[in-house]
Amino acid sequence: MAKPFDATTKDLFQADPAALLVYLGLRPAGPVEVLDADLSTVTTEADMVYRVGGPDPYLVHVEMQSSSDATLPRRLLRYNALLDYRHGARVWSVAVLLRPEADGPGMTGSLGLRLPDGRPVHDFRFGVVRTWQQSAETILRGPLSLLPLALLADAPPEAARSVIHRIDERLARESSGPEAARLMNSTFLLAGLRFAEETIATLFFGTLNMSLLDSKILKDSSSYRLLERLIRIDESRALLLALATRRFGPPTGSQKADLDGIDDHDRLQGLCLSLDSVSGWDELLAGQKQG
Fold first, then answer.
1. Of the N and C termini of the chain, which has fewer Cβ atoms inside 10 Å?
2. Which domain holds residue 162?
């Protein structure tokens, strides 16, 4: 999986591993616990590894993938063998494809390795879960920990606002404030896998509690970049309002509307610097009115 999404998905599923395994189509017969995925003998880490207890314990290895990677089946085999060797237990590996761009001809669930003369060396089987083929309705009715995946499921793009509304309603009804904010933030961040920045801003306006964003979550999605930009704009607008109010007094309703209509961070910063050269709100905002 592309590493920028590791923090979001790991955070999402480590709190409720049993729910994730059900999402993957498994029915664990015993308790599920998260294992340290560090294989130590390799320079990278498997995304997530779980031990399923019970009379016949086994491991489940999950790789989240957001972009195409022809080497993924071989990497799954590599991790599978190393985990089997380390823990002395059979391992079921699953690739979770987060968007269609991650799919490819090699994602068949089977990797057959043969010698040049055709003799079989290895026949490796693995699971493949395509998020866009999963039922959004099932996710929306399921465990809270899976709700952020609903936007990546089979609901059409025009239903995205309704999906977000239902997620918001369930979180408000069934979860605490910090936990609800964490899951909604994860929903927002994963939305960057499917929607453009402008669409995300429209979809989430009035829903996301940006003040509770977990700084350890995704740093490289279009949604996070949008969030950072919106926060910078809000901060600059608030600073300009405070400084100009101190100098010129409170703005009128129309002046405040003009100020709120400025959504360019650099322009807001420039207006802050121009306060000493203008005589009042109208002159300060003259350029905005003309635009």
1. C
2. 137-220
